[in-house]
Amino acid sequence: MTAPAAAYGKALDLITRVRGVRGAMLVSAEDGIVVAEQLMEGIKGPAVSALAASLASRLRRAMEAAGVGASLFWHLQAEHGALLVVPTPAGTLVVAVAEPDVNVGLVRLELLRAAEVVG
Amino acid sequence: MPDEIKALSSQLAQDPDSLVFLRLGELLRQKGQLDIAHRVALTGLERHPHLPDAHDLYARILADKHDYERAFDEWDMALRIAPDHIGALKGLAFLYFKVRDVQQAAAHLEAAQRAAPDDPGVAQALAMARGGGPGGRGAEAGAGGRGTEALTEPEPIAPAAQPLEEARVFAGLEGAQEGLLLLDASGRVLGGALKDRTGRDATDAVAAYLAGVSQEAARTVKLLGLGRWTGLAAEGDLGHVHLAPPTSDALLLVDRAVPMGRLAIIAQRAALAARRWLEAHA
User: Is A10 on the interface with B (CB under 8 A)?
Assistant: First the structure.
């Protein structure tokens, strides 16, 4: 983690201002611990972050083995919403929880911008 | 033919909404001018997206360009619009022959024959398919039935060691043995195979890493109250993958260097094929 704590809030703001985003988190990819969060009430941040980190780790390894390179963005789609994740080179996962009709392209863009802020 | 092409081009230029693009595209295709035919068909398709003949034309051009996967999609689309479309039924039969799925090819030819009982090409192809001709080669030509070289060129015979049932999971889907993988909950490979960019078999390594992913995805969305997970699209710097749950305890991986949206469509199709296969083998 290279950015100061104030930058985390700014990074999360970029994501949560997108319509349809229910919350955003910065998660340590290594241990799944929440570094910073802006989540709507009722979302179990620590549990979700642990699972997201585990998924990210498996996915990263599978993608490397498949020869498609490093994971840049992933999007877990569900009936009533989605989890969108951008891993940063420094080992942070930038995570958004979104409504099903969210503009995925826009969220992806903001996640990538947030990832640049976080470093 | 050049005069007709010129006349049709001029007609189309005067009236871009005209359906002459169908004839023009077909003539260009027959002449082997595939890139121009491709442009004509695509422009026509943009103007007439609900015209099955436009999808059929585009599919034939794609098939001539050996882009069988997209040809499959286009013929499939034509059939969704017009379930008895002869060209689409013959086209899909041709693609099934290409992957040696004679049963599916025959089923499509039978449907074509019901819709056009007097079509000699269909009857001939069907007779050869039922007779189990030499790998369906003759039937393949009949199924394509367009007189193009691309539709009749020989295909390599599938490796003898390939387990038949495994090969059939993704029958009709291009890349079934290099970009589609079906796993059970524990990561055991049920069908398909995966090769990395160097052509090396990556099936077992990828399967091992993906063991348990389906359950983790399910738990994550459950925690978030998002219902059932329907897919996981992942973008890599050299390509993309798409995971889908054809059933609650199986996982499908599609790995292709195509745009994410297109990959999702391929995954949807592969998931349907996998679900049918899993149900049949339950």
Answer: no
